[in-house]
Amino acid sequence: MDRPRAPITDEGAHRVRTIAIINQKGGCGKTTVSINLAATLAARGHKTLLVDMDPQGHCALGLAVPEKQIGQSISDLLRHGMDGQIGIADIVWQISRQLDLAPATVALAGIEQRLANAADRDRRLIQVLAPAADRYDYCIIDCPPSIGLLTFNALRAADEVIVPVETGYFAMQGSYRQEQTIEALTAKIGHNVRFKVLPTLYDVRTKLAREILSELKKHFGDKLLPHVINFNAKLKEAASFGQPITEYDGASRGMKDFDELANWLIANPPLKTALPSTAEIAAQAGANQSTPGRLPQPPRNAPFDDNANVSRAAELVERARELSARTAQLTQRLNKQTADQGVTQPQPPTPQPETAIAPAVAAAPTANAAVRPVSSAVQPPVERPGLQEKLNKLYGIRQTHKGTLFVQPGEGCEKVGIAGDFNNWNPASTPMSKHHELGVWQTCIEIPPGRYRYRLVIDGQWVKDPYNPATETNPFGELNSVLEVG
Q1: How far apart (Å, rounded) are the C-alpha atoms in residues 272 and 121?
Q2: Are the C-beta atoms of residues 436 and 427 closer than 8 Å to each other?
Q3: Out of 8-22, 361-375, 388-402, which region has the weakest mean confidence (pLDDT)?
Q4: Model confidence pLDDT, tens digit, residues 348-371
Q5: Continuous segment of H or E residues that includes residue 235
Q6: CATH number of the domain where residue 469 is located
Q7: 384-408 burial, b if ≥16 CB within 10 A, otherwise e?
Q8: Pairwise CA distance, residues 128 & 383, whole Å
Q9: What pTM, to 2 d.p., does this model score?
Q10: Parent domain of 142
């Protein structure tokens, strides 16, 4: 899994389908569903990653992975984030040929406190999973029985949510509140996920179970999956032996239920909605600033309050404002350099929203930063031809006789690296050095001919190259830059 990847030959980005298994109530079968759904998909030849986000570590227990032998776990990966010290390949256990487990230990219980002041604390999971997207077809996330930072991370990373609901009265009532909670959280982060309810521990012989299933159908309608997980002793026996049902008893009723569930999920993928442009996000952020009541409020037990949680749209607005100021500083330096040479330098254009996320010159705001809309009273400088062409020639990528040269602005950051297909997505292996005289970050590396994806890693934040117009959407809805080496 540490071998360098081959150059990309297809035009579209591989998309791993990520399913979060969520319910605030314990004992509803979340881990049973997570383990056996992942194993069933893997048995069909789909490369599957099972991520345990529950500090109890029951996925490892249910798959016979001894806790004492787990050196590094998902908590270590979340703690290090994208600093390049460890990756998903360093923590996974191979359960079968097509099934890998990213285990959890009790150390995961303290990760919320450790990341309390991290600006990207609610995006750590999607960031650390992104470099491994090409290795898997499915990712199943087993969430803890609570709505906190761990579940919040899972929601950001997921395409869809499955809520296992035990066919009992209290579980049914809890599922209604669960639906409201997930809808409020996903609306708050601006990330739509498909919501499905899965009846579990269903015993067709009891009148109560049949009545509750009927009520679930009335309330949830097409949000209720057309299959149930029946009460089956073989599922419990399999877990006690540390095996998924695919290995323990392939002829059992439990195996049949998960086969039917997998069949339905494979045949009915969630619809891929078009991602809004940066300009649309920025415009919406401005609208939300003027009408603060439009965003739905989070539930009382949501992990962040309004002051601590800076939305993605508001973050873009803040970055656009900072970028304008930093660009003005850069232009003044360029003007001074050209004036010394007797050349009159044109004034820069105002950065457009598409370039407003360039973190090389605008660091991301902290979680407690006040978000201010861009003042309409500030008139943009007159755009004159020539400067943008000079910037494009100065920054970005170009081919030289020594290799591929990467150049980025030197302001506003302390550490810059490059991660891509050509270095196994490890930013530590390709750091950029600061050229203090020119005021830029740069590096030159030899890359074999081919087509590659890459991202800049600036002070731990993974972003696209703002000076390379060639991009494609990665499996998690963000942009990768694309490099063609002839």
Answers
A1: 26
A2: no
A3: 361-375
A4: 444 443 333 333 333 333 333 333
A5: helix 233-240
A6: 2.60.40.10
A7: eeebeeebeeebbbeeeeeebebbb
A8: 40
A9: 0.57
A10: 17-267
